[in-house]
């Protein structure tokens, strides 16, 4: 009977249900638990795709703790983790599949297959070798990266952990853990799986964890075990634990978890506070005991380990169009040749031997077949027109640009935090050079996110005498001068407050001392801050989820209400001057309930019990939500506080309102029952908790408000001004109030008094009246109609300014409520048109989703290249919605950085990232791609001209190996050199003349007109190469008197092509360094070395006998040297003349700057500044010393700028620290000892 019931239990466990048979465990559960199980059983089955895991019906799982046999039939995932893309069996097929997803690789595969057929005029080696080289390099790169991931997986899976076996702890590996196991984790160790927290060595069953691996936050988080499991701390006691967990299926939500623990006939609700996630570490706790819930790839961190959405640059999409144009050119050439072949073929050409029995390709009786077969023949012959090595070269260039130039740029290195710039992807380098719209968060991005308690309003009375940076900037704009008085402010981290009326107990003499006490207690009690260190005001440190929280608790401490200890149920506060002046007492407050803050509620509350039994709800939050929940008798203080909030907002301060409510025991007990039920719910728990919170967070009494200053980051106004001059439009998307956002915009130079401002706000009389009536449908209708009218009015006004003679610039300010309706499909076109006509746009009170929607609106609607920059988790969606996402490694964790494409430490570094690295990358890659197009078209056209003299038969002009190695060896290095080192103007001039950046916005260097010019000269040069060499050699002969044959002429032509296309790159370069010379002349030398060896050896296994001894015969004639001298000169003469005319009469902007500064020394300005003012900071002095180091003198085409420097080598000789760079090794090895000189 027992065996049967066990089988029933196991079967039901597989379905996630429960068994009601006499032998089942859950029979012991109470009626309440049966209700929960019944609720679970009636849930609809569904399939949800989350990350890479697809949980199957039903929507919950049942786990038997400390019972592997019961869990085994369910087939839970193992705890072994694999982050590799391939294994031994899948590497080759999957790797090749990834490579052949590229159109160019697939094209060359088709060409390689065609070349093995009898109709191919070239040996298969011609196409197979370059394709194999490209695939080999790519696969080696993939294998190397995957091998590193494999090694990391082995290390992680083998990490030791203590698991309960019988009645003792035994050490095993992470990968051997199973769902339901009981484990013990020691201090500073990482959690091996997602665990249910059961017991801790700390009192009251709490532990502290660090979640830096998940979100980058180093602030400690507190977790609390269910009270019923606190005793299961030892191995003997833990072995008795036979609980049953009913919880949600695996998902990728890091901050939510619902479930119930059935133990000892009781149902205990589970929340994220009892969940310990894999990857987090245990801190300040000797050890904890937990039960494994999710393992391996079903853990939340692994389900979040998806790559950032793959972004493809606009440049690459345009490159695809160029490849299609080459396909069209190839097809046209093949059609011409095929038709020509069908027309030309005729038996009258008796010398061709076209007798009765001739192969189909040359049978005059079936000209259609001849045309078709010749078409395929010519496709293989002209296949070199598509550059197979283009993608590999571009990837290599982009990777080195990121690894060596962006990541190691000292100008983007933040000394205070020792944070360099980080390129997290190399796919978007050139996109940085074409950005037209920047979407920025405010807090932590434009500002420092170092919050300081600055002012407050208590009971309708303002306190705080300081002057903010925004107020100073506003006064300066209005021509006013503020005289700063000597400050007596108490200044510590998070607190910068100056007002003697309420400091040091002076608040007792104020008209409203009781309200002051409530204000200070609300600051000291309503928070989730964790104290660390000694329990003294001078040495204690606060671990807070946000800098605002820490600032408010620091303010309470300085006002005499010192929060110094927390347990899961109590908070200890050392209060001063409450009973009488100078008296200090420690008070323990019992925290009964905590209603947490979220983006929907926009408030946080705690219910606490005083030692005398008094029950109070303290609440703090945004003014809009607090004012809605005030009792009727608060109108006067509400009106006064609203005025104070507007003043604080105008000063650029962040505000919160504080309120409280006295609770009776009966009211609290009734509400608490509903709260417990909502907290135990498995479905929609968060929604039910919010609904229950609404029942008690009402009838509040307003205490006052706080004002916190978040100072601007260093260099933000100058950076924004520079980017604006570069043609970049900057939008600020923030959750702050409109007044705060506008004033920060003024301080940042985003808005000034000369601008015409269009403001669309929901704070209008019409909308307020609708809100007072309380009908949601009416509110929505009125608001939408108001937004529609405002948009139309603003758009008409903008058109008036644009079409008139006025040069006034426009700015738009819109709040989140209006934006919600403006993004409606019927209004978004008007919003987009208005926004695009404005120089600056400020969106206030916006949600993370609205940030992403605005970004997508411009990206998709305007077809402009966008960049989003932010520092917090609420910016992730915006960062991922833009073409380029920038994360700031600030104080709000690393969520934004982990979702970004590039990471920087300060907003001001955008200047270097965009105007220097972005612009250079764009120009370099444009030159690389157009040059590839030019050289391949030139080479293929010479073969095309030869086709006309061979009766369109498909006879090859070049040897197979010439054709194979043209791209991969003889012209490969110079392109890399240009892609890495070409520089039109220096970094300083790029920032001095930001208008140069507009060339990238307008895509000046990758237009069809530019490509057409390169194509024209490819056409011209191919005619020179072919007809000059063939015509000149018609009557030429070698030393033995024999006339030149096909292979003599083709080898000479190929030599001219290799020399000319390499020299052409020097002509196109803006700056010429040693790497250019090495690339160009190294490639030419490689050709001669190859041909000397190749033509000196003959093997009977291929068609190489055609080239045997050819180069030696050619070099024995004067004709060869004369041709080699004249043909490149004539071929390049057209380019030379065009560039001269273009530079003189139609110069690009950068060419004008080159001429203006061709005699300048790049660092002269800095020397002159030094003469004027010698007061340099240590960082500036170090930077100046680096700038003074000698550099490599480079030669240029008509102007003088620095080539890439070798700072770190010279720095070591001058006693200045600078990071090592890869080329220093070569520099050190080759440098001769000579006196150091400065220029």
UniProtKB/TrEMBL annotation:
GO terms for biological process: Golgi vesicle budding; phospholipid translocation. GO terms for molecular function: ATP binding; ATP hydrolysis activity; flippase activity; magnesium ion binding. Mg(2+) binds at residues 441, 443, 871, 875. Keywords: ATP-binding, Magnesium, Membrane, Metal-binding, Nucleotide-binding, Translocase, Transmembrane, Transmembrane helix, Transport. It comes from Carex littledalei. InterPro entries: ATPase_P-typ_cyto_dom_N, ATPase_P-typ_P_site, ATPase_P-typ_TM_dom_sf, ATPase_P-typ_transduc_dom_A_sf, HAD-like_sf, HAD_sf, P-type_ATPase_IV, P-type_ATPase_N. Residues 897-1147 form the P-type ATPase C-terminal domain. NCBIfam families: ATPase-Plipid, ATPase_P-type. It is found in: Endomembrane system; Membrane. Signal peptide: none annotated. Pfam families: Cation_ATPase, PhoLip_ATPase_C, PhoLip_ATPase_N. The active site is at residue 441. Residues 63-127 form the P-type ATPase N-terminal domain. It catalyses: ATP + H2O + phospholipidSide 1 = ADP + phosphate + phospholipidSide 2. Its EC number is 7.6.2.1. It comes from the Eukaryota. Belongs to the cation transport ATPase (P-type) (TC 3.A.3) family. Type IV subfamily. GO terms for cellular component: endoplasmic reticulum; Golgi membrane; plasma membrane; trans-Golgi network. Residues 16-36 have a biased composition (Low complexity). CDD domains: P-type_ATPase_APLT_Dnf-like. The chain crosses the membrane at residues 322-345, 368-392, 928-946, 961-981, 1008-1029, 1049-1068, 1075-1095, 1107-1133. It is a multi-pass membrane protein. This is Phospholipid-transporting ATPase. Its main location: membrane. Its cofactor is Mg(2+). ATP binds at residues 441-443, 549, 597, 620, 654, 734-736, 845, 851, 874-875.
